[in-house]
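WARN no homologs supplied; continuing
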Amino acid sequence: MKKNTKNLWTIEELDESVKAYVDMRNKYLNDENFIKKKYYEELVEKFGRTIKSFEYRMQNISYVYTLMGRDYIPGLKPASGVSPGQIDTIQKLITKYENFISRENLIFNSEIYKYENINEDTIPEGNKIPKRENVEVTNFKRDPKVVAWILKNSKGICECCKKAAPFEKEDDSYFLEVHHLKLLSDGGSDTIDNAIAVCPNCHRELHYGKNRKNLINEIYKNIERLMR
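OK structure emitted
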């Protein structure tokens, strides 16, 4: 056992913690039984921190998943006490074990939350000429026929809120977006029984909303073609 008496977490500790979290999360998504405490005990045996310490680190990882617009493990409520550098490291480790690169700029998203109480009377300076940055992105190869079918089948009505599409495009078609109820990054299929047409507001809520799980349950109840 490697005793770590310092507060700073090593990359090895973060790596093993994320690996354990991803394994638990995969079991959760596949309805497999697992015991969180056993994972913590294995990490304690290897690194010498307390169970509480690893549990809190798992809550930090939950926070990173919420920044990605994805579900976290129930019982591990997101804890935002994590530095931008660790957010970046945890995101990279998640992609390492999931073999998927998120397009979300998580550090930027977390920085936004820091300023949620910003004084509206103090106008930010901003950037006259924003700098460019190259970001590596991995996309899933989707079937355009599935997207076309979902959009046509919706007849311009959001399948979540049941309201008309917010506007029409130049070609007179309705603007709606296709959302996979089980995310492709979580092993969801790119098929019509896992996809719906939604307005932009509902699409964001289905990723980031506090009530998204209830919305998803209602959607499954109301649309016969969908399969969990």
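Helices lie at 11-29, 36-47, 51-67, 84-98, 106-114, 144-154, 200-208, 212-222.
OK
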